[in-house]
Design goal:
Blueprint (H helix, E strand, L loop, with lengths): L1 H41 L17 E2 L31 E8 L17 E6 L3 E2 L12 E4 L6 H10 L3 E3 L3 E5 L8 H10 L5 E5 L3 H13 L4 E5 L3 H4 L7 H15 L9 E4 L9 H17 L3 E7 L12 H12 L4 E8 L17 H10 L6 E8 L8 H16 L4 E6 L11 H6 L2 H10 E5 L26
Length: 476
């Protein structure tokens, strides 16, 4: 009996120990599951939003939209887009659409009326990187937003990530007469928004003087260019030694420079579409002129080469490399003046990059020779010498070209040809005038995020694809 009692006590104790162990194990398992659940919640990644453009690195956006109904809401989406290797693709544009459904209020007598729903098109003007920014952006990110845009905030945000922003650099070329209606508003509104503009003028200092006054007041770094188009001033004396011809040309152009213009703010062009067969002579001429202009406190734009000129081999001659070296070392005082035309109103990217975008080949030559990329002014830009497309078609082309030029900080701007008058230019002044308002609106509602460091030149990355117009028959 005693023995049985002892056995019962032993079994009871073993049962208690086993029971306690089971409870402890269950609690431990429960705690472990809870920790796993918490970790699962904490480690759940933010939902990703993948844009349709394949070449665009990504970003996190924090907008504050406004509903169109009476409900006020602040919505903060956090899309995350991982940077990818850029490939040839259409100009990327960041947009989003959200639907806001306010909480329904149930009255004492409910009805079958559904809660109101409003849809707002949301444009994302500020872009921030949630993770480490990409080591480089091979192509700019195109951001489209409803103005007014806080460009300073956008710039600060980009610079915090080691990036920067660029604006639409396409402006206008003016002259005597013509049709410049709306040009003052274009200058004033862009300046007020902090958006730099590009303006070139031949034989007419008045528009540049107005722009200069605006610039002196605001400090916005607009790019202004003046040329005296009289043949005696802009055709060099090829029969002379380059240095002698340069001294003669510089004295004539310097003395004719309008006194109301500030040479520290307004670039001066002394030649226009010179003889491409004299490229080496012109290189020596340009270097001598540049040195005199810098000594006199001017900003000098050399050459004014016609579209598609000169031959690429001409940029590699010893004399031309010497000029490029000097220009690269004086980016605020010496620039290349180039003309880029498609010579086709149907297609701005015709045989790209041999016409529009040709400047990239000069940069490639500079890179190969360890020369700093020089400042570039596209002092004439467009389609044909006597026509521009309709505003809708032109803006499709400008949308691509603005993105392409944005990739290169050294390109300061391009002037649409032509708001001035000339019998040989037909009605182009009235056609081009129709672009002033849409170009202004585009400049106020678009900007580009880019890596400010020079990227290797790869023209294929910036090739014009839809929505830029390309004639299908030329692709066959």
């Amino acid at each position: 009996m005693q023995k049985n009692t002892n056995l019962r006590l032993i079994f009871l104790l073993v049962g208690l120990v086993l029971g306690a162990t089971a409870v402890f194990t269950q609690q431990l398992q429960t705690s472990s599951n809870l920790v796993k659940a918490q970790n699962a919640v904490e480690l759940t990644p933010t939902p990703s939003i993948t844009p349709t453009a394949s070449s665009t690195p990504t970003a996190t956006f924090t907008p504050t939209p406004t509903a169109t109904n009476t409900v006020t809401a602040t919505i903060t989406p956090t899309p995350i887009i991982s940077p990818t290797t850029a490939t040839s693709s259409p100009t990327p544009t960041i947009t989003a659409t959200i639907t806001m459904t306010p909480t329904a209020t149930v009255s004492p007598t409910p009805t079958n009326t559904p809660p109101p729903t409003s849809t707002t098109n949301l444009y994302l003007p500020i872009v921030t990187f949630q993770t480490e920014p990409p080591s480089s952006l091979l192509v700019p990110i195109h951001v489209s937003a409803t103005p007014p845009i806080d460009f300073e905030a956008a710039r600060a945000d980009a610079q915090a990530q080691g990036l920067d922003i660029a604006f639409n650099k396409i402006g206008f070329h003016v002259g005597l007469g013509g049709n410049t209606q709306g040009l003052d508003a274009w200058m004033e509104e862009l300046d007020a928004a902090g958006v730099p503009f590009f303006l070139k003028s031949a034989n007419n200092a008045e528009p540049l003087y107005e722009a200069q006054q605006i610039m002196q007041t605001s400090g916005v770094p607009h790019t202004l260019v003046y040329r005296d188009a009289r043949p005696a001033l802009d055709i060099p004396a090829y029969h002379l030694e380059p240095s002698v011809a340069a001294a003669q040309s510089w004295q004539l152009n310097r003395d004719a420079f309008p006194p109301e213009l500030d040479p520290s703010l307004v670039w001066i062009e002394t030649t226009n579409e010179p003889n491409k067969n004299e490229a080496e002579w012109l290189a020596e001429f340009a270097l001598a002129t540049a040195q005199m202009a810098v000594a006199d406190g001017f900003k000098y734009a050399a050459f004014g080469w016609s579209g598609g000129e000169p031959e690429l081999a001409d940029w590699e001659s010893p004399a031309m490399l010497a000029f490029l070296q000097y220009a690269g070392e004086h980016p605020d005082q010496v620039a290349l003046s180039l003309h880029e035309y498609s010579f086709d109103t149907d297609e701005i990217g015709y045989i790209y990059p041999w016409l529009v975008g040709r400047f990239q080949m000069i940069f490639e030559i500079c890179d190969e020779n360890n020369i700093p990329r020089p400042t570039v002014l596209i002092t004439e830009w467009g389609w044909e010498f006597d026509h521009v497309p309709t505003p809708q078609a032109a803006m499709e082309d400008i949308n691509w070209a603005a993105w392409m030029y944005a990739a290169y900080p050294q390109v300061k701007g391009a002037g649409i040809w032509y708001l001035g008058y000339g019998e040989e230019f037909g009605n182009i002044h009235n056609e081009a005038q129709k672009l002033i308002a849409p170009v202004k609106d585009y400049s106020l509602s678009n900007y580009f995020i880019l890596d400010p460091q020079d990227q290797p030149v790869d023209t294929s990355l910036l090739a014009p694809l839809p929505p830029t117009r390309i004639r299908i028959e030329r692709l066959k």
